């Protein structure tokens, strides 16, 4: 059988459906919760999951915490805002995991803004290894943008549905609120110097790459919005670093111990 893994922080509105989705193919579900202040833990336990409370350690490290508590060799890792598609459920049910020559399977992540499927800007097919033997593969123990290695894995034609952003407003607000500040702090703490043109250059390149190289211009308003949001995130990240380098008052007011 398969153990399902979910990492959470204040996901009371999502966790029940995420567990229900995993329960279609998993006989055990482990939730690693980052000390949520809402009802995530209560909802997860009520849905039958084993809940492990762990202060957030960073992306890959946090996901691997669950591996000490799983009872199966194969695990399926999702986020609280992800759901298994019918074709993914069918693939898992008909696969003989005891005799497969592969150590993992990469699924196509189907990303949504609201109810709109975004197919451009590298958002589809967004292949990620999420179903794997944890004695052979694990998430890389890094704090940001961790993935499972693709060694001896197979890409399958089945989707993992990802409700990535609630709306266009969320598309612009969430990266600014979370990702830009986090990325900026990591750059600053690495002692990498940026210059006055860094925000403009990084933001402009991100916009060009997503609009033209990744097809955002062909995705209509949503494709352009995604391209602009990615560019905004890149611009803000370097603008924040530049500000900390130039302005001691702003820098001293920032908590660089609070990244995760």
Please describe what this structure looks like:
- The protein is α/β, with parallel strands linked by helices.
- It has helices at 15-22, 40-46, 59-65, 86-94, 168-189, 198-213, 220-246, 248-252, and strands at 2-8, 28-33, 50-53, 74-79, 82-84, 104-113, 116-117, 126-133, 153-165.
- It has 2 domains: 2-165, Spore Coat Polysaccharide Biosynthesis Protein SpsA, Chain A (Alpha-Beta Complex); 168-252.
- The chain is 39% helix and 23% strand.
- Strands 1, 2, 3, 4, 5, 6, 7, 8 and 9 form a 9-stranded mixed sheet that branches.
- β2 (28-33), α2 (40-46) and β3 (50-53) form a beta-alpha-beta unit.
- α6 (198-213) packs antiparallel against α7.
- The chain is globular.
- It starts with a strand and ends in an 8-residue tail after the last helix.
- The model has no long low-confidence stretch (mean pLDDT 96).
């Amino acid at each position: 059988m398969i153990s399902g893994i979910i990492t959470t922080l204040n996901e009371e509105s999502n966790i029940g459906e995420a567990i229900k989705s995993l329960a279609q193919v998993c006989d055990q579900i482990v939730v690693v919760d980052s000390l949520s202040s809402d009802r995530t833990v209560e909802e997860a336990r009520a849905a039958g999951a084993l809940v492990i409370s762990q202060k957030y350690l960073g992306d890959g490290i946090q996901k691997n915490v669950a591996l000490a508590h799983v009872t199966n060799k194969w695990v399926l890792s999702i986020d609280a805002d992800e759901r298994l598609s019918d074709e993914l459920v069918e693939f898992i049910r008909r696969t003989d995991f005891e005799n497969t020559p592969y150590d993992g399977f990469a699924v196509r992540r189907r990303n949504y803004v609201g109810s709109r499927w975004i197919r451009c800007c590298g958002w589809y097919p967004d292949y990620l290894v999420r179903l794997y033997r944890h004695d052979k593969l694990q998430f890389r123990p890094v704090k940001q943008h961790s993935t499972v290695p693709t060694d001896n894995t197979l890409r399958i034609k089945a989707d993992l549905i990802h409700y990535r952003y609630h709306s266009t407003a969320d598309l612009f607000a969430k990266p600014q609120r979370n990702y830009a500040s986090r990325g900026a702090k990591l750059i600053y703490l690495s002692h990498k110097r940026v210059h006055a043109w860094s925000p403009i250059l990084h933001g402009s390149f991100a916009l060009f790459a997503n609009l033209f190289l990744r097809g955002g211009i062909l995705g209509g308003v949503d494709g352009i919005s995604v391209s602009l949001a990615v560019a905004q995130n890149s611009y803000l990240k370097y603008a924040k670093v530049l500000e900390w380098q130039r302005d001691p008052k702003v820098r001293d007011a920032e908590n660089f111990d609070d990244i995760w």
